[in-house]
Design brief:
Oligomer: single chain
Shape: elongated
Strand order of the largest sheet: 1-2
Distance between the termini: 49 Å
Number of domains: 1
Helix content: over 70%
Largest sheet: 2 strands, antiparallel
Radius of gyration: 24 Å
Order of helices and strands: HHHHEEHHHH
Number of helices: 8
């Protein structure tokens, strides 16, 4: 009888409207973060799978985080509950956006490098919907996305989500000014990391195009830019072959440093 009573008591606690609403509040922050966090939010993953991942993560973290939820204040008035849902969604979206800025910066630099190497005309895989990237940018972005899971960085994302409830408890205020400062600071860090990753291609393109300009100046009878295009592209692919591993390692080091410290 005692065991059955404990089971019914646990079921009653699970079906408590306050607990259900508190779990939904947790889902607002976690789901908004995973909706924007790179890797999990990829458009190549079906929407149903992304939703199931967000629900599974929420239910996994709920036993650790429900004691921080203001259960008694959630049913008194719907207006504070709606405000709480909006604030939690904004906090989670900001965390996911900060992580996504790294990959947006890498994608922008990779597109610029592809344009300077003469690889911008053919289109590659659509990493995002309605956005066909050059093959070089698609390769770099997809490789960095795969490395998130290969290096277990996605577990750091979940650890950071759980730690965010200690930094900003449920029911806290959403500081828009602080969030904007974090976005601006992260933008600077991300573009520095992305520029370090793509800098060999920019340096190579500048040197090669300068050399082609000097040759064209010395021998104007030869259409050197038409003849040199295969050599420029081939040299860029050779440079990519030798440098892609350390460059992606540098990018992942910067991304993981943000996950650990942020």
């Amino acid at each position: 009888m005692n065991a059955s009573g404990d089971i019914f008591a646990g079921a009653g606690a699970i079906l408590d409207p306050n607990v259900t609403l508190a779990t939904f509040v947790l889902f607002c922050r976690i789901g908004a973060c995973l909706m924007l966090m790179p890797g999990i939010s990829s458009a190549q993953i079906p929407v149903q799978i992304r939703l199931f991942i967000a629900v599974a993560v929420t239910l996994s973290l709920a036993p650790l985080l429900l004691d921080q939820a203001p259960l008694h204040s959630l049913e008194a008035d719907p207006i504070p509950a709606l405000r709480l849902i909006a604030v939690e969604s904004a906090i989670g979206g900001t965390i996911g956006l900060l992580g996504r800025l790294f990959f947006l910066a890498l994608e922008a630099m990779a597109v610029g490098a592809a344009a300077m190497l003469g690889m911008a005309n053919p289109f590659g895989v659509e990493v995002e919907p309605n956005q066909a990237l050059p093959p070089l940018a698609s390769f770099v972005t997809l490789s960095a996305t795969a490395l998130i899971f290969m290096t277990d960085a996605h577990w750091e994302v979940l650890r950071g989500l759980a730690a965010s409830y200690h930094a900003i408890p449920i029911g806290g205020e959403f500081d828009a000014g602080y969030s904007l400062r974090q976005v601006a600071s992260t933008l600077g860090d991300t573009f520095r990391v992305a520029l370090r990753v793509c800098s060999p291609f920019f340096i190579y393109a500048i040197i090669v195009n300068l050399a082609m300009s000097l040759i064209n100046r010395l021998t104007p009878q030869v259409a050197i830019f038409y003849m040199a295009t295969p050599f420029i592209v081939g040299g860029g692919l050779l440079l990519l072959y030798f440098s892609v591993k350390p460059l992606l390692g540098e990018f992942m080091s910067g991304f993981e440093a943000w996950l650990i410290s942020g």
